[in-house]
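Example record

One chain of 342 residues, shown exactly as stored in the release files.
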Amino acid sequence: MANIYKTITPDNITSTRTMLHEEVPVTGTIVSGSTYSGNNIKTYSHGMFESVYDYPILSSSANHLFDLTCGYYSGSGDNNSANNQNTKKVNIYGQMAQVLVGHDVNGDVLPFDADGDFSTTGDKINEAYFVNLSRLLTKDEIKKGTFSLQVGDATSWSSPFSSYLTISDGTATTKYRTNSPAGDYSVLYTGSAPYTEGTGVGLLYYQAGVAVLTASVFGAAAEMNSSGEVAQAVLTGSDIDTNADGIRHRFADLDFQNTIELNSTIYFCNANHNEFNYSSNPTYLSESQIRVKQVAQDAPHSYITSVGLYSADNELLATAKLSEPLKKDPSNSLTLRVRLDY
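Predicted structure tokens for this chain:
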């Protein structure tokens, strides 16, 4: 009689976790919109952020890359009702800080801390630009130590810039922080060295996929370009779209590696020498004779083509197909390794 079911014990089950990484390059010509004459940049009637796509937004192939916006802390000196879109800028900062930083003991939203230590005396990022990377790019998270953003650092817009500033998370592999409700993050620095406390220009949140850049890294009154002419895009004096346009035109290159966490459960399915030598397939027999036997005295054998994983009440949960049939007879035993990825 053919064996149909065999219980898999905990000793035959193991779990593994694998981190897969993918290089993600985003060129400045895509971000500025020059590649597609600005047709890959989406603005909204609410004017609270801009979206950057890798192709014109009306194309079926267009993928959302990231959103750009800006804002400042309600306690900042820049919070003035006379400012352009003042309420929206305060609300945007408050929303981002609430999600990424959290609240103090009194329930008030905490500002972004330049060093990530939340000390009362440390430098704060009260005025910020936010780069919200899409889940399509970051997957499960950004790999620590791989983020690099190159921006033009001249006082006026030009193409190409005469000099560039590199912003990176160079110390993240050893100095990342975990005191955020949104997961791990680290301080962003300019240049290559030295990475010293108090010199950070932003924060990078790995699982959330958000880069927070202090507005001062671009200069207090940096001249930026939105449509080919030089225009003032000061954080307080211009609307959010104009600020986003200015930041976009300063992007030269954005690179990082994403991370996909692949969890696997592996089942070792053992067929001992005296098991599964017969088939329960009705076509295995012809007039009570085993089809695969040529001589009556030959040992019975079967061909394994698939493995089914069943629940305790014999409901089929998963099926694994072999690349080719495996011959099974009393002279051999087999161990089939079935892996479920999720």
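Notes: The helical segments are 28-32, 86-100, 135-138, 172-175, 240-250.
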